[in-house]
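We were asked to recover a plausible sequence for a given structure. The inputs and outputs are reproduced exactly as logged, with field labels preserved.

PROBLEM: sequence recovery
POSITIONS: 246
GIVEN STRUCTURE:
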């Protein structure tokens, strides 16, 4: 059994399509999306339509919740300079789109054929705004995972791929499809984007569980063309990320 985990697409259909093209040749049995689907990037409708076609399990990220209730964006830890993009994205979605986003799950558990249980979430099992990193204290991890029987935990949100052991537990971050960060975000230290998309494959081979943290390059020129045509408020930020001028 081979499962592909995608997360934090953030309206970047160009990167999503590159990942899905790679998934096609990986003999994947199932795709699971770990949230933050449409906001920030120039192609929200394209992303949402493609996710519908996949008919996959989708976890609700903090940005997904903010799209549904933009007036409460601060509660979902959406920084003030991203609010215009949030409203821009929402204006391009239909009621059916919003109903689809509202149907996303909070958690999802998978039982592999060998009995290993995998718990899927966005930030942590407790909240989509929690950030699990390589430096997160063990006692905080204990709080996040308390009461769950899974031994493999996989989320997104940080935009940084991660493979971390915690006692008998394996903690994974699938990385970001649409906004792969060069370094972890900290207040006052704006992230830089990398020119590739990230996702993760978990597969069972006999009694062993294999983890493949994958990196897929995408055409940033095509993405910048989409940004320029979209009218998204953050267009200049996107151009700066990929050193492209209009």
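RECOVERED SEQUENCE:
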């Amino acid at each position: 059994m081979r499962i592909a985990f995608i997360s934090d697409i953030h309206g970047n259909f160009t990167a999503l399509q590159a990942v899905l093209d790679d998934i096609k040749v990986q003999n994947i049995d199932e795709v699971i999306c770990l949230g933050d689907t449409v906001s920030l990037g120039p192609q929200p409708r394209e992303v949402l339509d493609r996710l519908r076609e996949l008919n996959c399990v989708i976890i609700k990220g903090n940005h997904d919740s903010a799209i549904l209730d933009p007036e409460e964006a601060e509660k979902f830890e959406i920084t003030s300079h991203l609010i215009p993009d949030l409203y821009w994205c929402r204006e391009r979605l239909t009621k059916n789109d919003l109903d689809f986003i509202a149907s996303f799950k909070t958690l999802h558990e998978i039982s592999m054929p060998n009995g290993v249980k995998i718990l899927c979430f966005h930030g942590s099992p407790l909240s989509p705004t929690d950030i699990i990193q390589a430096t997160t204290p063990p006692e905080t991890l204990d709080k996040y995972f308390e009461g769950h029987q899974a031994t493999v935990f996989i989320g997104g949100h940080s935009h940084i791929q991660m493979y971390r052991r915690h006692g008998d537990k394996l903690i994974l971050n699938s990385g970001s499809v649409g906004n792969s960060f060069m370094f972890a975000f900290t207040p006052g230290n704006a992230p830089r984007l990398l020119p590739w998309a990230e996702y993760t494959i978990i597969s069972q081979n006999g009694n062993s569980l294999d983890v493949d943290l994958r990196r897929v390059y995408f055409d940033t020129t095509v993405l910048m063309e989409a940004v320029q045509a979209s009218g998204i408020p953050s267009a200049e930020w996107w151009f700066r990320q990929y050193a492209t001028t209009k």
